[in-house]
Design goal:
19 helices; Tetracycline Repressor, domain 2; globular
Length: 431
């Protein structure tokens, strides 16, 4: 009996058209999820962008969560491909070559998305908003991609690093790549390769002048920036009710970081604190007001810390190191985390998004000012302060998720494992 031909050689007549429409759907969905968040988007809104009715869209994906999963898996695959190319195509086996190529390829991907040469990809801000079982498959794929990125750091230059050190540095690298999407559009598209090159140099070699040592813990503590961060939350004579209100802010911040603005419902916030909805409304007028206060809380901690660093004694290197160490410890400590800046896209109205973006730019300016001080006093090596400020911002922002990749990380060991390579570079020896 003659064996049937393999199915791959006999595609159904609609396959090509199906794939074309599916890609158009994923493109539109990625754009919409980026703008509205996974929790805020609806199948009907996505279908309308393609002049489809919702029932036509469900022919491809039955549920919104299935569509979001497909978008995330496509974005993860794209980043995995970049890592694979960097591992295979780097002209030499050095870590620096591979990391630089990976970031250059990533910048080219962003440029192609901007010009339309590459379909839109969903950002990873709302990846935790997926429910089970979809979350399991997405996180499994992301973890595989993370491991591939970590392989970029394998070499004689990093032979003395343990698993936690490598995971922390891979997180720094991948977070900087993800963060680039948020600010690279300030530059012309033809400048993206130069931006990626400078980003790579900063990540690999840090900002410190040659021969600079990492400050001792007592030197960092002496600048008093931990007290400045804490003072941003409560007045010195803060009442007990202030601390209760702050507990709501911390719970809401955690949920927004995990599930986006719309995923942080009143029910979920109340459940996180083991209180009733009545207790929630006793302390908060509306959810919108609470989330706005979460942004203000995070901006207050960042602003107080950075302004205190600007006025502290010592070199700019010491002050920048102390500020970064303080903010990373805060992220991991009992008063943290800070609200992820990527949560901005899921805010419900454009005026609020614009206001948050302005505040983020102001904070970036404070970091850049510290770095300029370092250029003036010679404690930092020559660099582009605007780009370096974004690289440092990405490290501080990403510390909120560091425990996922370094389970044993604590406020006590975070400086050595994470903050130190963020400022001395991915190639520095273990602390």
């Amino acid at each position: 009996m003659r064996s049937p031909e393999p199915a791959a050689t006999l595609p159904p007549p609609q396959t090509a058209r199906f794939q074309e429409k599916r890609e158009a759907l994923l493109d539109a969905a990625a754009r919409h999820f980026n703008a509205q968040g996974v929790k805020g988007a609806t199948l009907g809104e996505i279908a309308a962008q393609l002049d489809l009715v919702t029932t036509s869209l469900t022919y491809y994906y039955r549920k919104k969560e299935d569509l979001a999963t497909a978008c995330f898996l496509r974005a993860i695959a794209a980043h995995d491909t970049l890592a694979q190319r960097a591992l295979a195509d780097a002209p030499s086996a050095t870590v620096a070559d591979r990391v630089t190529l990976f970031l250059q390829l990533h910048a080219q991907l962003l440029a192609d998305m901007e010009t339309g040469a590459q379909p839109a990809l969903i950002g990873f801000a709302d990846i935790r908003a997926l429910p089970e079982p979809q979350a399991a498959s997405v996180f499994a794929a992301y973890t595989d991609m993370f491991r591939r990125v970590r392989c970029l750091l394998d070499g004689p230059e990093t032979a003395g690093l343990g698993r936690d050190d490598l995971n922390a540095r891979a997180h720094l690298l991948l977070s900087a790549a993800h963060w680039l999407r948020a600010w690279v559009q300030r530059h012309a598209i033809d400048a993206y390769p130069r931006v990626a090159q400078r980003q790579a140099q900063l990540l690999l070699h840090g900002v410190a002048a040659p021969g600079t040592r990492w400050p001792a813990d007592d030197e960092l503590a002496a600048l008093g920036l931990d007290a400045a961060a804490a003072a941003a939350l409560h007045p010195a004579d803060g009442a007990a009710d202030d601390h209760t209100a702050d507990a709501f802010l911390r719970a809401a911040t955690m949920l927004v970081n995990e599930q986006g603005y719309r995923g942080a419902s009143v029910d979920r916030i109340s459940a996180r604190l083991h209180v009733t909805k009545g207790s929630f409304y006793h302390h908060n007028e509306t959810k919108h007001d609470l989330i706005s206060a979460c942004f203000e809380r995070s901006f207050a901690v960042l602003g107080h810390t950075l302004r205190a660093a600007a006025q502290a004694p010592g070199t700019a290197w010491q002050r920048t190191s102390a500020a970064a160490a303080t903010l990373v410890r805060f992220q991991l400590g009992p008063l943290g985390p800070l609200l992820r800046s990527t949560a901005t896209s899921a805010l419900p109205d454009e005026p609020q998004r614009a206001q948050v973006r302005r505040q983020l730019q102001q904070l970036s300016g404070l970091i850049a000012s510290l770095l300029v001080d370092g250029l003036e006093d010679g404690s930092l090596r020559p660099h582009d302060p605007a780009i370096a400020a974004q690289v440092l911002s990405s490290a501080i922002n990403a510390a909120a998720e560091l425990q996922r990749w370094v389970p044993g990380i604590t406020p006590d060991n975070a400086t050595a494992v994470y903050t130190r390579p963020a400022l001395l570079g991915l190639l520095c020896p273990a602390g």
